[in-house]
Amino acid sequence: MASGSEKFERLAALVAEVVNLRQASGILYWDQQTMMPKAGAEARGNQMATLDKLAHEKFTRPEIGQLLEDLRSHEASLPHDSDEASAIRVTRREYEKATKLPPDLVERLSRAANDGFGVWLQAREARDYQVFRPALERTYGLMREVADVLGYQDHPMDPLLDQSEPGMKVAEVETLFAELRETLVPLCQAIFAKVDAVDDRPLRQRFPHDQQMAASREAARIAGFDLETRGRLDLSVHPFTIGFSPNDVRITTKVDEDFLTTSFFASLHEAGHGNYGQGVPAKFQQSLLDDGPSAGLHESQSLLWENVVGRSRAFWEFYYPSLKRVFPAQFDGVSMESVYRAVNKVQPSFIRVDADEVTYNLHVMLRFELEKAVFDGKLALKDLDEAWNAKFKDYLGLTPPDDLAGVLQDIHWTGGFGAAFAGYTIGHVSCLQLYEKACRDIPGLEAGFARGEFAPLLGWMNRNIHAHGSKFTPQELLERATGRPLTAKPYLAYIRRKFGEIYGV
Amino acid sequence: MASGSEKFERLAALVAEVVNLRQASGILYWDQQTMMPKAGAEARGNQMATLDKLAHEKFTRPEIGQLLEDLRSHEASLPHDSDEASAIRVTRREYEKATKLPPDLVERLSRAANDGFGVWLQAREARDYQVFRPALERTYGLMREVADVLGYQDHPMDPLLDQSEPGMKVAEVETLFAELRETLVPLCQAIFAKVDAVDDRPLRQRFPHDQQMAASREAARIAGFDLETRGRLDLSVHPFTIGFSPNDVRITTKVDEDFLTTSFFASLHEAGHGNYGQGVPAKFQQSLLDDGPSAGLHESQSLLWENVVGRSRAFWEFYYPSLKRVFPAQFDGVSMESVYRAVNKVQPSFIRVDADEVTYNLHVMLRFELEKAVFDGKLALKDLDEAWNAKFKDYLGLTPPDDLAGVLQDIHWTGGFGAAFAGYTIGHVSCLQLYEKACRDIPGLEAGFARGEFAPLLGWMNRNIHAHGSKFTPQELLERATGRPLTAKPYLAYIRRKFGEIYGV
């Protein structure tokens, strides 16, 4: 009879095959978004659907289920936080979810995501949501199927949310949004009344593409992302990060030549995700522990570099002289303080990814509420564009000029519908919870930014978050790192303090 | 009982899965050569090995064998050249070869190729063949295993040659080389004696990278390769072409800023391969008919655009004014005729891919003879560098200054050893055989080049070669297109005529 260790080795080999298929599919996705000639879309759909189907087929083979059963006593004999027990535990959890999904459904999801991406691009060109609607109806139908297959007690979005935020419930997200709404809505109104107190015109000049890319690369480097031997930075319609091992992590950005902020902060943001990918130990790379445990915790790392670092006064004390060297004419006579204020301008705006730290979570709340209304049967997808615009008017006082600036802005709905956005808000909240603890552990942390010292912060995240891969649930990991469960208090305190000072509110 | 058509549909679906896995592996390879951060190599090896192993596993499943048996009478009821009969016939031939190779050997080949590529890069940096030798010994050992498993009657390289040149034997290649040697060796000697009759200094000036890339893109476009919606041109250490469907075909080049010829003709060459890929009908894209039947016929298409078109006087009559606009200073006072002569300079040189049309096949002959000597046990791999240099001195009168300019120049030996080079010479020979027929079919074809009319030639190749995918064996296809079997006569007549005129020999 094979020993526990032998069985674990066999399990690890079977899982490695699945991981390699998923990584291969990721490479095809990256290529599709950055390099692929337009006409290649149809073949790419077939290729990705085949890989996704096979990955699913290989992961759900009965031998894995049998090994997981056989390994129960071996697992119990190991410490909970050992690599081996964690790999068995996480593999079992994923296996149980995956065996519920029939291969045929997985393949249909993959094809719908690929087709949906193509239709989304067409709809964006036409600036018309109704072009995209049939693709979204298909995706939504598939999501309902997924929810039914995975099962739920309280809400059909619960099992979908669980895919990106293991353990989190729709009801908890609603509670979190209620707490945020209480502070953010009055704060926004107070700031909107004084919106001219901050002038962001210095950022709205002509900044040529190539210099912006140079600044974006510099931003990623400052954040500690390895662009040389273990990573890349490219262009895509919607910035994203993807890793195929800790030694091959790729981030993308997009450039608006009339607005410096878009690419610069997208690069810092994706570099934060990239830091997570590059920070997971290589020993996990052929296992299911090879990335963070949730979208929200991943987002905490991107927001850390985009907002908490990149929009801090200390960062600009350090970085502004370099930026001025790249764009001397544009920043002639502009003070560091005005740039600091400009990058923190709060205003109602259309595009989520360009939104400031105060309004951002209103954008997320809107999406979450619309998705929930669709799942609750209170909103039909044919009316999603109008519902979007009405709610947008409610929260931000604006009506999008067209669907491109409204309901068509996010890539997320090309491949899924339901609960994927909540992770962004969980990201904001957990980001500040982690940062508060890092500041307590490392005296003078933020002051060091002004001297270009960012490595201590990355080191803290490497040790307390990245080092664990997905050994722990997001809740466990957050508690291990900060000593308490998810709380919005540090985030709300940070927002009140920072924007209270800038706007005098 | 399922009908023949139903069984064929099932077979096609199973084969499509294999084709998609191979295409995915191809995308990973392209990325590895053009985009991948250095440190990603190890993970990439695992990913590609997994895909290659699965593709093999899926292709060799007994159900495919059973379907191929069951389809024999259905196949016999269809015309030999019908798409369906051809798909069954080609799938059966490939299946019989593939079922002979154990999956474990396929995976070891894939890993060896990946590792070998990394070691080759290191050896090139060190300019030292002995750094590469252990990788080559591993590859050679695997090739012997492959030969033994596939089986042979006459020579162990026969089954390896059969992989790229179905139906061709090592003994036939030797006969072909003997015929070429008879004309080429004395012709080379006559030309080498008058080597200064052609001055290629106009091509050996400073040509900045970006302008060269612009000229290279223009060259590919002139050849008819679609760079916009169905293809790309990128940079890599060794130029190559790969396709993932007729709608996604990618070519690469490399730039030498001190020599115009390298990138310009590499781009024309790869565009020729790319034309083949883009020319295969889309209906074949999910089947094994989705590319040409042999490396040699593929090479006939690349050499057509690189040499027969790109080094013709008529081409330069058309193109020289454009090139002069890109490089006005470099070509100030240089006549079209001197550029035509310069791009046709014949001289002993180190690098195969830079060699002229007359010496090129001596480079190939050298590799073929060295490989054969290793397989015949007459040469040890530890002595390959010295044997290379000695033979090089014999054929071309030169000794490579280091291994980078010698035995380390080709990427081919990173993934295989034995018979892959013969296709280049078969390519030269069949290229001129096809071109001679195209000229007979289309009066004034070559004169049209001077007016920028290249579409008739591409159209002829589309109809007579590309349109058939790999429905026919190379021999069948060549006979269908030209009315006779492979013959070196048109190639030798072309070489004697063209270079006789240029050198007055």
Q: How would you describe this structure to a colleague?
A:
- Two copies of one chain form a homodimer.
- The first copy, chain A, has helices at residues 4-34, 41-59, 62-70, 72-76, 83-100, 103-126, 129-150, 158-164, 170-192, 209-222, 261-279, 295-309, 313-326, 336-342, 360-375, 384-396, 422-441, 445-449, 455-464, 474-482, 489-503, and strands at residues 231-235, 241-243, 249-253.
- Chain A has 505 residues and is mostly helical.
- Chain A has two domains: 4-154; 170-503, Neurolysin, domain 3, CATH 1.10.1370.
- Chain A has a three-stranded mixed beta sheet, sandwiched between helices.
- In chain A, helix 2 runs antiparallel to helix 6, helix 13 (313-326) packs across helix 14 and helix 15 packs antiparallel against helix 17.
- The first copy, chain A, is globular and about 75 Å long.
- The N and C termini of chain A lie far apart (71 Å).
- In chain A, 48% of the residues are buried.
- Chains A and B meet through helix 1 and helix 2 of A and helix 1 and helix 2 of B.
* Strand content range of chain A: under 5%
Tell how many strands the DSSP assignment of chain A holds.
3
Number of DSSP helical runs of chain A: 21
Question: Briefly, what CATH class of the largest domain in chain A?
Answer: Mainly Alpha
* CATH fold group of the largest domain in chain A: Neurolysin, domain 3
Mean pLDDT of chain A: 95
**Largest interface by residue count?**
A-B, 36 and 36 residues
Strand/helix succession of chain A: HHHHHHHHHHEEEHHHHHHHHHHH
Indicate the CATH architecture of the largest domain in chain A.
Answer: Orthogonal Bundle
Spatial order of the strands forming the largest sheet of chain A: 1-3-2
Uncertain ranges of chain A: none
Helix residue percentage of chain A: 55-70%
